[in-house]
Sequence to fold (102 residues):
Amino acid sequence: VSTQSTGITTLPKYFEGVSGVLGSAYNVFNESCEDIVRAFLADQDYFEDGPVCLGSKGSLYSDEHSFCCEDGNLLTARWLGDTFLLARKLIQKILPSQATDS
Fold:
């Protein structure tokens, strides 16, 4: 289910935990991306994990398995499978009269 939430998200720890399967692209820092983002948050409830989506991802034609957080002008997503939804949300922000909902 496509989800939009107020808050912030990033690459979840469980994605980095499977980096042996996915390759080193998801393991680029000494700390997890989630830990780095959470360290800067005054309120931990502001962080949104989103639904577990191993093996499922959004596409050009469907946001069914996508997750994106929107808080004012800040848009965040978790991984490559969320980028189509993130791009649509960005287009809506930049060109609201030309954007279409999926």
